[in-house]
Amino acid sequence: MILGRQFFTFVLLLSFICGFAQQQDELQGFQGFSTPKPMQNAGILKVGVTPVFDGQIAFTGELRVTYERKIAKRQSITIGASYDFPNFILLAISSRYGGRGGGRHGGGGYGGGSSFNSFSIEGGRITLGYRYYPLKKLEGLKGLYVGPYLSYNAVNIRQKDISANYEVVNYADATGIVGYQFIFPRRFTLDLFGGLGYKNNFVAHYNSYANEVNNQYTVKIQALDNVKIALQLNFGYAF
Fold it and tell me: What does residue 166 show for φ and ψ, rounded to 5 degrees?
């Protein structure tokens, strides 16, 4: 009987302590009887500036729009879309050029001594990513972040005089990035990130005379041919 009373007293005391601690937490989090504020910076709409002048694929520009949405504490997803078009460098070329060039963009096939004005260039790019903000303590999508993202870019290059002949330049990559996002007082944002990943680029040629498609994959001469280096700068608005 005495043991039962002691157990009952212990349970009652424990319930009182838990209830008191809960009330203290509620009082500490109480902000008055004002209207609750919505979660700040749950979404950010961004645009890229440099891709307009120099896109991922040689001699193209990109009109890129990216949307980032918070999905949980310290976590978000990003969805992006781009429209590819002949960039300003290509439009400024008036003389004939014997190929698409190389550099960081890789190889290709159109040109062959023809004027660039004889080609139609258009396409699009989609991206999907995930971000984790390890050091973030406040609400909103700001600060240091890490995460992966996937990208697929395809550009259709067609000869205007022989519309049945065309090629499609395909750029696919998966990249791990590290970045930092600034959110300024008027909700304007600056997003900068860089990273490394894997790329698989190839060109599909369609010959109307032979009625066949030839896939020309990236020539893997060195071990770093499939290494993807990413660097982006985006401006946006948080809401």
Answer: -160, 170
